[in-house]
Amino acid sequence: ITGTPGRTDSEALATLHRIFGYDAFRGEQEEVIEHVVAGGDAVVLMPTGGGKSLCYQIPALVRPGTGVVVSPLIALMQDQVDALRALGVRAGFMNSTQDFDERRVVEAEFLSGELDLLYLAPERLRLDSSLELLSRGKISVFAIDEAHCVSQWGHDFRPDYLALSLLGERWPDVPRIALTATATHATHQEITQRLNMPAARHFVASFDRPNIQYRVVPKADPKKQLLAFLREEHAGDAGIVYCLSRNSVEKTAEFLAGNGIAAVPYHAGLDSGTRAAHQSRFLREEGLVVCATIAFGMGIDKPDVRFVAHLDLPKSIEGYYQETGRAGRDGLPSTAWMAYGLNDVIQQRKLIQSGEGDEAFRRRAGAHLDSMLALCETAQCRRGQLLNYFGQEPDLTGCGNCDTCLTPPETWDGTVAAQKVLSTVVRLQRERGQKFGAVQIVDILLGKRTGKVIQFDHDQLSVFGIGQDLVEGEWRGVVRQLLAQGLLAVEGEYGTLVLTEASGEVLRREREVPLRKEPKKPATSKASGS
Ligand code: ADP
Ligand code: ZN
C-alpha cells in the first residue's frame, strides 16, 4: 500500500476505490494526481503500462468541470470511452469518425456540464469552432496524451500538436498535464517548451521494466529461429511478433499457423473488420500470437502479453522500447526477443536515404538508427543502455536479466579484419570507381569465384581471398558491426558500401576496432543468409 498516512481519506483515493476499484496508487500516480487536483501543471514521463490514464482521469473526476483529453489515437477513443462508461464515468469523444448528429449530442452534454471527460483529436482542437465550444463550457483539466508528438526531433511528430501551446494562454486557470511514455531528456525539454509549460512540475517514473528480459540474436533464418524460441520458451503464450512489411507479416503468420501455433496477421492493408476481429481475439483468447506491423499495439491493454518479438530492426530506441513495453504489463517474467542481421542495417540505411524528407530529417533518422544499432551491438548490459538512452541511471553492475548479462559476449580485436574489409572497399571504390554491396565484398574476401567476381575481374585484386581465416557469417558480422560503428557507410539504392571519414583512421592503423564475436552456430538454424 503506497498512500501516505493522513492522505488516505483524500478524494482522489476515494475515487480510485469507488470508480476504478483499485486498492492503492502505483508509483508516482498519487503525487501527480494531488498536484493536478490542486491546480498545478505537470509533465509526466511514465513507461507504457505505468498507469498514465488515471493521472488525468482522477483529477477530471475530482475537479469541477470536464476534463479535456487530447489524444492522437482516434481509433481507440470509442473503446476508451466505452470502458469509462462501463465504470459509470460520463465520457464522450469528438473526432472525424462521427457524423454531425453524434457530435451535436456530445457538444450538448459538454455544454450542460454532463461530461466528466471529453476526448478530442488534436486536429479538432485547432478549429476555431472547437475552441469556441470549449470556451462556452467548464473545463477541469487539459490532458495532452502522447505528448512526445509535439517534438520535431522525436519519432512521431504531429504538426497539430504545435497548436496546443495556446491552451495555456486561453485557459490560464485550467491545469494542464502532458503525458508520454517515450522521451529522452531532449524530447522532455522540447515538450515543456513547445507546450509552453515552464511552470510545470516534472514527474519522471523509472523506465526500467525489470520483468522484461531483453535479448538480441543474430539473424539467420528468422522464422525458424522464432518458431524455436516460441516452442522452447513460450508455448501457448500470447505475444506479438513485429515485422517491417505487410508481406512478411502475412508470411510469418502463415508459417507459425502451419507449425501449429495459433497466429493471425495484423496490418493496415487488411480490412477494418478483419483487423478488429484479430485484435479482439488477441484480447480475449489465451495464447494467441499476433504478427503485426507497428500499426498494432498502440493503446492495447492486455496485461499478460508474455513476449514481443522483432523480426526486423525497429527504427529507433523509442520505438523498440514502446513496442517491447507491451510485454509483461502484469509484472510477470516476459521476453523481448529480436533477430537482427546485416541486411537490417543496410535496408534501414537505404530506406533513410531513398525516403522522403529533407537533409535534416535524414540526419535525425540516421541518428535514431545509430542509437538502435549501438543497442544491438553492445557487449554491455542492454537494460543499462536503454536506461542510459532515456537519461536514467542504470545499475552499473548489470541487470542480470538480459542476454549480455546472462552470457557475456566475447570480444576480439577486429582491427585486421576491419582493415581487410575497408581495403577491399578502397580497391573497388577508389581505384576502379565501382559500386558494390556487402555480398560481393565478402565473396572477394573469401576468394569465391562467383559469376560476378569473374565478370568484374575481382579475382585479380590483391585482396582476393585474403579473408579465409573467417567464415561467411563472421564476415557479415564484421561488415554489420563496421556499419554500426560508423566505420563504413551505405550509399544509394543498391546498398553500395562506402568509406567514412573514420575509415581512414582504421586503414592508417590509428584506431583499433573491438568487435563482438559472432556465435559460431546461431541458435536453432544452420542457414547462413541474411
Ligand atoms: P499507460 O497509459 O501508462 O500505458 P494505463 O493507464 O493504460 O497505462 O494503465 C495500464 C494498466 O494498469 C491498466 O490496466 C490500468 O487499469 C492499470 N492500473 C493503472 N493504475 C493502477 C493502480 N493504481 N492499481 C491497479 N491497476 C492500475
Ligand atoms: Zn543486463
General description of the model:
The protein is of the alpha/beta class and 530 residues long. Helix content is 42%, strand content 14%. It is built from 22 helices and 17 strands. The chain has helices at 11-20, 29-37, 52-62, 74-86, 100-111, 122-125, 128-135, 166-170, 185-194, 222-233, 246-258, 272-284, 317-324, 342-354, 359-377, 382-389, 403-406, 415-432, 438-446, 451-455, 472-484, 501-507; strands spanning 42-45, 66-70, 91-94, 117-120, 139-144, 176-180, 201-204, 212-218, 239-242, 263-266, 289-292, 307-310, 334-340, 411-413, 488-491, 496-499, 514-516. The protein has a seven-stranded parallel beta sheet with strand order 3-4-2-5-6-1-7, sandwiched between helices. β10, α12 and β11 form a beta-alpha-beta unit. α19 crosses α21 (472-484). Bound molecules: adenosine-5'-diphosphate and zinc ion. Zinc ion is lined by residues 381-383, 398-399, 402, 404-405. Adenosine-5'-diphosphate is lined by residues 22, 25-26, 29, 46, 48-54, 301, 329. GO terms for molecular function: helicase activity. Its EC number is 5.6.2.4.
List keywords for this structure.
six-stranded parallel beta sheet; 530 residues; binds adenosine-5'-diphosphate; seven-stranded parallel beta sheet; disordered C terminus; nucleotide-binding; binds zinc ion; 22 helices; alpha/beta
